[in-house]
Amino acid sequence: MDNFANQQWVIIALFFFGIIAYIAWVRRMDRKWIDARFGSRKIQAMSFGVNYYGRATEPGAPRKSSGFLLLLSDRLFYRSRLKKIELEIPAAGIVRVYHDRSHKGVELHQSLVKIDFFNAQNQKDTAAFKVPYPPQWIQAIENTLLKKKGP
Length: 151
Prior knowledge:
Elements: H1 2-6, H2 8-38, E1 43-55, E2 65-72, E3 75-80, E4 86-90, E5 94-103, E6 106-118, E7 124-130, H3 134-149
Antiparallel strand pairs: 1-2, 1-7, 2-3, 3-4, 5-6, 6-7
């Protein structure tokens, strides 16, 4: 038993590397799904571990889901990992991209990228995402999707 107590670092190391292996496996599965869905379409930007807080037109408080966000040349695409929520925002529907800290009137105490757009019912809507490096995502969306629309 004394020998086992001295080897606790091995258990901690195995646990740590197990978590790393799981994250790598999940990202590989997501990447395979992306390749199957979008094929040869050029992806301008991609982030894993993105939190989506829903659309402003959805009832209730913001609900968090985790997944990945893709910026394609003609749209923005989000898919959650567990809930299988998908959101496509075509470039033609995007009105504005900006930084905020609240969504649906609730202060979320984190940096969010918010996108004002017209949904399929032609209603103005807002989606909120927590992404890595929000200023770069805002600039990428503006440069890729909003510049094509013109003033």
